Amino acid sequence: MKCGAGIFLYRRRFLLPPPFYLVGIIYEITLALFLFFCPYFYPLLHSTLFFPLCFQTLLFLFLGAEGEGNRPMKRLVTVLLLIVSTALEGNGEDDHVPCKPKALDPRPHSVSILEFGAIGDGKTLNTVAFQNAVFYAKSFADKGGAKLYVPSGKWLTGSFNLTSHLTLFLERGATIIASKDYAHWIPLDPLPSYGRGIDVPGGRYCSLIYGQNLSDDGIIDGQGSVWWDLISTHSLNYSRPHLIELVASNNIIISNLTFLNSPAWSIHPVYCSNIQIQNITAHAPTELPYTSGIVPDSSEHVCIVNSNISTGNDAIVLKSGWDQYGITYGKPTANVHIRSVYLQSSFGAGLAFGSEMSGGISDIIAEQLHIFNSTIGIELKTTMGRGGYMKNIFISDAKLENINTGIGMTGYFGSHPDEKYDPNAVPVVGNITFENVIGANITIAGNFSGIVDLPFTPIWLSNVTFSMSSKSSPWWFCSNVMGISEEVFPEPCPDLQNMYSNISSGFSSLHPSSNYVSSA
């Protein structure tokens, strides 16, 4: 059997030293008009922070600084910069719109799994029945496609591969149960952007389901306990399978399903485009650190909306390949919109980025987040050797409850696939915005640890308020980061209060070297 098958918002708020506000204002207006009448230069400015940052940094270095200035003038500069960002967005090749709930197109043909001898008693193995049903449904691919109907019952199966133009429809009360016998799971080669499995060197097991357009009110139960035992005892021959893995697929809807007890990740779209994940529940035991929820990986135009995810490791985490393999494959995760989600992660983050991000992660909006009972609320993680970038990430309207660390960023997280990685491949992290974030019972407000001599910058914090679980401080820990904050409580580190206070020491970080991976 063969297995396989955002919106972008610039929020640049670069503040000039007081004597030279007028110069900065004239510059920003000129840039806005230039982009409006000369849109062909948009990709150059869209893909790098160099142009605006370099101008304003040079202004500081050669003309000097005389304090922070007054708030009204800062707001004026902010408004003008937003005008520039509007020009940038309006002249882009793709005008992204918010993702909205989508309905599946009706299929003119339908087939029931019962027609192929499947028995829903939770004991009979139905792998062959699913394989034969999919093979039959494939004959309707050029006739509008087909719907594979799974009625109420417990349907035990090993891994199987869906096909294009097929909707897997689970009736309410239907549960697809994964076999606990790993002989029913086919080993595969590692993904090219990873070079090895996520758990052990070598290959990986085929995920339970490969397919597209999965829908309705059924349950997919991975019965992952056997896999968690294998990894905890270091007994795996191949890396664990996921519940659903979509490889190089387009125009996919996953809707109104419940995913339970995944051996590894619940939903893993990799090398995909135009993915809609809506109204789903993903749950695995939160007391075990072995599972993640939704993992968009080297994929673009992904929407995740109206969903509830609780896992041991990261609930939603964006990735794009591992070290030299991800750099070589060179496919980023971009244009992702996450909205109206409830997230819980006992050992990881509710929303995470990385640490495997060597193909790049950019142009992300995450809003209306409710993250609770987690180790970290929101985390960006990487390490030397990754290369790649994480930039243009906008997070707003987030509510955090009972969290150890509200916001985390680290440049020292994760291991390497093998000894062939390039230790000089530097990850670039910048243009990250946190806006309208509130938290209750937070132990540490923020823990920011960038890379020595290459700070994470710029970081924006606006209207961020945490109610701390303890009255003792410090509540913020910062090193090798630069940013600007406004209306933040508790008061953040000095490095996050005025990016220009130590801009000269970080000037070299604004100029990517040949070791960096930049966006296309």
From TrEMBL:
According to the entry, what is the taxonomic lineage of the organism?
Answer: Eukaryota, Viridiplantae, Streptophyta, Embryophyta, Tracheophyta
Q: Which Pfam families match?
A: Glyco_hydro_28
**Which keywords fit this entry according to its UniProt record?**
Cell wall, Glycosidase, Hydrolase, Membrane, Secreted, Transmembrane, Transmembrane helix
Of which family is this protein a member? Belongs to the glycosyl hydrolase 28 family.
InterPro entries to which the protein is assigned, alphabetical: GH28_Enzymes (IPR051801), Glyco_hydro_28 (IPR000743), Pectin_lyas_fold (IPR012334), Pectin_lyase_fold/virulence (IPR011050)
Its GO biological process annotations read: carbohydrate metabolic process
UniProt cross-references to Gene3D superfamilies, sorted A to Z: Single-stranded right-handed beta-helix, Pectin lyase-like
Which locations, inside or outside the cell, does it occupy?
Answer: Secreted, Cell wall
* Record-given protein name: Polygalacturonase
What would you give as a GO molecular function for this chain, any one? polygalacturonase activity
- Record field: transmembrane: 20-42, 48-65
Q: Which SUPFAM superfamilies match?
A: Pectin lyase-like
